[in-house]
Write a structure and sequence with these properties.
single chain, mainly alpha, 621 residues, Serine Threonine Protein Phosphatase 5, Tetratricopeptide repeat, two-stranded antiparallel sheet, 2 strands
Length: 621
């Protein structure tokens, strides 16, 4: 029975990052110890309970004792405190206020705030920061109702994070099983091809399709006909793989055997060959990834839908005009993968179709996937077509509109003359762009004239110089006073790829514990893999430099609640595990959430070698 009054003060200190999973485990441990007459447990129970009989002492009693030992009147008060919304993220200076509010509301599970934000702008359900949408935070923090609301508003349940993990994995890692089931059901409704999983090997049929090995594909389908729909690691069917490889004989065979010509590519993790082309049909793979008109025509002949964007890409003026005459509203339609007709025509150099679409009212700045201000002008500039560039500019094309990870039309212009035209029509290049264009003298002139311009672009001009291997330019920039900012998220990995240049940056004052917006440090990143599964090339050398400069081996990030050692264990990097243990990292840090310990990550991911190393170093479950 609980003591009615005069309860003693707390005897335990609540860890700064306490979580409900930890507390539940502690309560169960207290219950078991008390029932076994463990002296410290008996003393603790007697301190906070009156007439506590071992036979009647239940989990609810243990939870109450634990709460009082932490200074709370009840278990519900303790869990309310621990579950209270806490935003640890560092607000990026370049994030829109409404996007930040959406992310933090999702993380906090603040459903009324989310409802209000989404009512004003439904697009906020999918707009995030640095490839991290609101749904990710709701899932990560176990906010079931917030996750449900975002999914109903159109959020993608299959988003893959920067670390290459899908949202279902994110939920299951943290014990949010109900959210994992919610996501799985939502993903099934999207009707994409299910990826086999990042750790799963591709089935031999995928390699055979990519090699146009018709006999092998036939043998495999004879033995197992359903393989025609089998997804590979990234979510591609054998037909996607054949279309990507221009494997016409295999395409014909797969279609004869019932392959879905309109199958949507799934959203699996990336690999050495690139990221998953989510929502691409096989014809999209042929056109937008390979520029392969012949394969696209084959697929159309075999029944692939030829909508306005496909007609534009294939240069079919008559069909495009007929579509618009019959239904003018088709001008705004997009492919399932987000491509519009105007950019399709520009990409393949069909000026007559570009002119037709513009005359019918197409806007070059209509958004497309990866191009929030349109992509048509970018492709025209890349192709070097001055007439098409001028036509698009005359209809409002934005020469500074970015294309995902590819710069803008002014940057990509095929010739200097065309770039000059775009600059004269309002295009802009910042010092970051100029580094990639090998305009180093102009970079220095701009930075001296406007020091703030050094921080424009993805990661700033220092990141650009480092990733391009321009040591001399890096030295000149540092001598001119350019410095790494105190918080850096975008493209920060560019700073960490070369040991020699990393030493220069640290010597100039870069913080060895430089946080990103999720409090991950450079040492964390040396212990991880990118979205394509690639580890840092010079990770041991760079990690050693960082540690010697003062990097903490016990820092925890917000995303994984993990130390660098736990990152290395999760990422299957035995060399980094050995280095960090040798440098004093704890194999079982005392404040780790149970799911985020190095041993928990290595065990869950099946990294047996690392499990053994950690156990030898004293790690316990």
């Amino acid at each position: 029975m609980p003591k009615p009054s005069g309860v003693p003060g707390p005897s335990r200190a609540l860890p700064p990052r306490a979580n409900l999973e930890q507390l539940r485990k502690q309560a169960k441990e207290l219950l078991a110890a008390y029932r076994e007459a463990d002296a410290p447990a008996v003393a603790e129970v007697d301190r906070y309970e009156r007439s506590a009989g071992r036979r009647r002492f239940a989990l609810a009693d243990a939870q109450r004792v634990l709460a009082r030992s932490y200074g709370f009147a009840s278990w519900s008060k303790l869990t309310e405190h621990v579950g209270r919304p806490r935003v640890h993220m560092i607000r990026p200076p370049d994030i829109r206020p409404e996007v930040w509010d959406t992310l933090t509301a999702a993380a906090a599970g603040d459903v009324p705030a989310l409802e209000s934000l989404l009512a004003r702008d439904p697009g906020l359900a999918s707009e995030g920061y640095w490839y991290t949408p609101p749904l990710h935070f709701a899932v990560r923090e176990g906010r079931l109702e917030a996750a449900r609301l975002l999914l109903e508003a159109g959020a993608d349940p299959a988003v893959v994070g920067l670390g290459g993990e899908d949202l279902v994995t994110t939920a299951r890692d943290r014990g949010h099983d109900e959210i994992a089931r919610l996501l799985g059901a939502a993903a099934e409704r999207r009707r994409r091809t299910a990826p086999a999983g990042r750790a799963a090997p591709d089935h031999p049929i995928h390699a055979a399709a990519a090699a146009d090995d018709v006999e092998a594909v036939r043998r495999l389908l004879d033995a197992e006909p359903d393989l025609v729909r089998r997804g590979d690691r990234k979510g591609g069917t054998p037909l996607h793989r054949a279309a990507d490889a221009r494997a016409h004989r295999t395409i014909e065979l797969l279609l004869d055997r019932g392959a879905d010509i309109h199958a949507l590519h799934g959203r699996g993790g990336g690999d050495a060959h690139g990221y998953a082309p989510a929502d691409f049909q096989p014809i999209d793979v042929a056109l937008w990834r390979r520029g392969d008109v012949d394969t696209a025509r084959l697929l159309v002949a075999r029944g692939a839908a030829c909508d306005l964007a496909i007609a534009a890409a294939l240069g079919d003026v008559a069909r495009a005009r007929a579509f618009l005459d019959e239904e003018p509203g088709r001008l705004r339609e997009t492919r399932p993968c987000g491509v519009r007709a105007l950019s399709a025509a520009a990409r393949f150099g069909h000026e007559e179709i570009v002119r037709l679409l513009l005359e019918r009212g197409a806007d070059p700045t209509w958004p497309e996937t990866g191009a929030p201000r349109g992509a048509a002008l970018y492709y025209a500039a890349r192709a070097g077509s001055r007439p098409m560039v001028e036509l698009l500019l005359d209809h409002g094309g934005d020469p500074s509109a970015p294309l995902e990870s590819s710069g803008n039309a002014t940057y990509i212009a095929k010739t200097r003359e065309l770039r000059s035209l775009l600059l004269a029509r309002g295009g802009a290049l910042d010092p970051y762009d100029l580094v990639f264009l090998d305009e180093d003298e102009e970079v220095m002139r701009r930075v001296r004239a406007d020091p703030a311009s050094a921080h424009s672009g993805c990661g700033g001009v220092l990141a650009a110089a480092c990733t391009q291997g321009k040591r001399e330019l890096l030295v000149r920039l540092l001598e001119a006073g350019v410095r790494v900012p105190p918080v850096l998220t975008a493209c920060r990995g560019y700073l960490l790829g070369d040991p020699d240049m990393l030493r220069l940056l640290l010597a100039s004052g870069m913080d060895p514990n430089l946080p990103n917006w999720q409090h991950a440090t450079p040492l964390h990143e040396q212990c991880g893999r990118d979205g394509r599964g690639r580890a840092a090339r010079h990770r041991v050398a760079c990690a050693t430099i960082l540690i010697e400069a003062g990097a903490s081996v016990s820092a925890r990030d917000d995303e994984y609640r993990s130390t660098p050692l736990a990152w290395a264990a999760r990422s299957n990097l035995p060399d980094m595990v050995e280095l960090l243990l040798a440098r004093g990292a704890l194999a079982s840090p005392p404040d780790d959430p149970p799911w985020a310990t190095p041993l928990a990550w290595a065990t869950r991911r099946g990294h047996g070698e690392i499990v053994e190393v950690l156990r030898r170093a004293g790690a316990v479950s």
